[in-house]
From TrEMBL:
Gene for this chain: ASAH2
The protein's required cofactors: Zn(2+)
The protein's Enzyme Commission number: 3.5.1.23
Organism: Nothobranchius furzeri
Family: Belongs to the neutral ceramidase family.
Enzyme class: hydrolase
Region (Disordered): 402-426
Keywords associated with the record: Hydrolase, Lipid metabolism, Membrane, Metal-binding, Sphingolipid metabolism, Transmembrane, Transmembrane helix, Zinc
Protein name: Neutral ceramidase
Co-factor remark: Binds 1 zinc ion per subunit.
Reactions this protein catalyses: an N-acylsphing-4-enine + H2O = sphing-4-enine + a fatty acid
Organismal lineage: Eukaryota, Metazoa, Chordata, Craniata, Vertebrata
UniProt binding sites for Zn(2+): 129, 238
InterPro entries: Ceramidase_alk, NEUT/ALK_ceramidase_N
Short name of any one Pfam family annotated for the protein: Ceramidase_alk
Length: 426
């Protein structure tokens, strides 16, 4: 039963984490004996050689944001963890998020190559949430509208890049160990709806020091000699240092952090070429912005209204959050650099070994049919998908187009749900 007894007897590593996907819910706990990591570039030649007007960027839902040129390349980074009995694949790709269509296409390609080895229940795909990757890889109406449709030449490079990164990882598997470390990074993110956060119960808020999660979690992968071969880290911040006026394809702050750590560890290698793979993965970043100078009115330079994130002249459209840097390129570098520095420090000092058997699980949730307990006596039920005011209002990283205002729940013509949750989609 204890498979590592077979040959890789000395290695028993565990790792527990919870991953929540946009469309599916996945929980898994894993342990490993062999693993390996690798990355592969999502080739963008298609994107830049074809009529750029066709391709929008995924994230801001901004029809003006037509892809034109490259700021930084996009990569897919794959980690395979295997305890000799079970295997889990974790991929973090420099894209907005993983659509269900993309996931199905990747699984289909994996099935063709590997049969039943990599499946629905043991392949986890995650996007870094850059808002400057290409769009067009969703099959849901809302995303099709804001992406100019479902575009085959847009999804294909993503499928190819992700599968290629898994292929490389698969063919490079070797025995190793995993170590875990965590710490706090408190100057690289702020809550973009601090007022909405106050709607959370006080006893819950009292449990936390901040109104966003500042924890950086690092998994360090080494070979049996203790030489580092890879890292995955999680930090909750939106990859929106590149703002909604940007038209260049970019992996944003998270991609820049990967670039820096890989450059560090792969002495002299060109980007994307060395053997050390550093994945900076998205986590509970819903209402967390890297634009740490906060929202200001573009026309006056004054802070926006605290409650409704709008400006006296121009309303919500004039209220924008700005980063720590002089411009968005500078902000991307500053935020990416500080996430990299923290992860590097945690990586260097990681000593807590992860051990135990690996486990993976997958569950579909019918979001139309979930019962939620709202207090001791009452439960409510979810309904069919709807967009709320908070969605239409957008955020201070990119306002909505329909003149909805944050905090407003009174426009009856548009009322579809009366939630006062912060807008977290954009
Ligand atoms: C090996 O994996 C199978 C299913 O994948 C599981 O049922 C079994 O318990 C595992 N064995 C050990 C020792 O973990
Ligand atoms: C936002 O709130 C301020 C008061 O805090 C109010 O004067 C203003 O009209 C509001 N703006 C919108 C667009 O609702
Ligand atoms: C976006 O970034 C550009 C370049 O750094 C800057 O000129 C512009 O003011 C920014 N716009 C917003 C709304 O943040
Ligand atoms: C999800 O739940 C709704 C409401 O109960 C039901 O109408 C629908 O058929 C369910 N969908 C699936 C795929 O089970
Ligand atoms: C529970 O929620 C219901 C529906 O909102 C409300 O009518 C009821 O007063 C609440 N009960 C308690 C104890 O807060
Ligand atoms: C948006 O709303 C503001 C106040 O709520 C109003 O002054 C403005 O005219 C509206 N703009 C448009 C384009 O409807």
């Amino acid at each position: 039963k204890r498979m590592w007894v077979v040959q890789r007897s000395s290695i028993k590593h565990v790792l527990c984490l919870v991953v929540k996907c946009v469309l599916t819910k996945l929980w898994f706990i894993f342990v490993f004996v062999f693993f390996n990591s690798n990355r592969s570039e999502i080739k963008l030649t298609v994107l830049i050689n074809v009529d750029a007007l066709l391709y929008l960027q995924m994230g801001y839902a901004n029809p003006q944001q037509k892809a034109a040129g490259i700021h930084t390349r996009l990569y897919s980074r794959a980690f395979i963890i295997d305890d000799g009995n079970r295997t889990v694949v974790f991929v973090t790709a420099d894209i907005g998020m993983v659509s269900q269509r993309l996931r199905l296409e990747v699984l289909r390609a994996l099935k063709e190559k590997y049969g039943n080895l990599y499946r629905q229940d043991n392949v986890v795909l995650s996007g870094t949430h850059t808002h400057c990757g290409l769009a067009g890889y969703f099959q849901y109406t809302l995303f099709m509208i804001t992406s100019n449709g479902y575009i085959k030449s847009s999804i294909q490079p993503l499928v190819n890049g992700i599968v290629k990164s898994i292929d490389i990882a698969h063919s490079n598997k070797r025995p190793g160990r995993i170590y875990r470390n965590k710490g706090e990074l408190d100057d690289s993110s702020i809550n973009r709806s601090p007022h909405s956060y106050l709607n959370n119960p006080e006893d819950e808020r009292n449990r936390y020091k901040w109104n966003t999660d500042k924890q950086v979690l690092v998994l360090k992968f080494t070979d049996l000699d203790g030489d580092g071969i890879g890292m995955i880290s999680w930090f909750a911040v939106h990859a929106v240092s590149m703002n909604y006026t940007n038209r260049m394809v970019s992996s944003d702050n998270m991609g820049y952090a990967s670039y820096l750590l890989e450059k560090d560890k792969n002495h002299g290698a060109l980007p994307g070429q060395g053997s050390f793979v550093a994945g900076f993965s998205s986590s509970n970043l819903g209402d967390v912005t890297p634009n740490t100078r906060g929202p200001h009115c573009v026309n006056s330079g004054l802070p926006c209204d605290y409650l409704n994130s709008s400006c006296p002249v121009g309303g919500t459209k004039e209220c924008k959050a700005f980063g720590p840097g002089e411009d968005m390129f500078d902000s991307t570098k500053i935020i990416g650099h500080s996430i990299y520095m923290k992860a590097k420090e945690l990586y260097a000092n990681a000593v807590e070994e992860v051990t135990g058997p690996i486990h993976a699980a997958h569950q579909w949730v019918n979001m139309t049919d979930v019962t939620v307990q709202i207090n001791e006596t009452h439960t409510v039920s979810t309904c069919k998908p709807a967009l709320g005011h908070s969605f239409a209002a957008g955020t201070t990283d990119g306002g909505g187009d329909l003149n909805f205002t944050q905090g407003d729940s009174t426009a009856p013509d548009f009322r579809v749900s009366a939630g006062n949750t912060p807008s977290s989609y954009l």
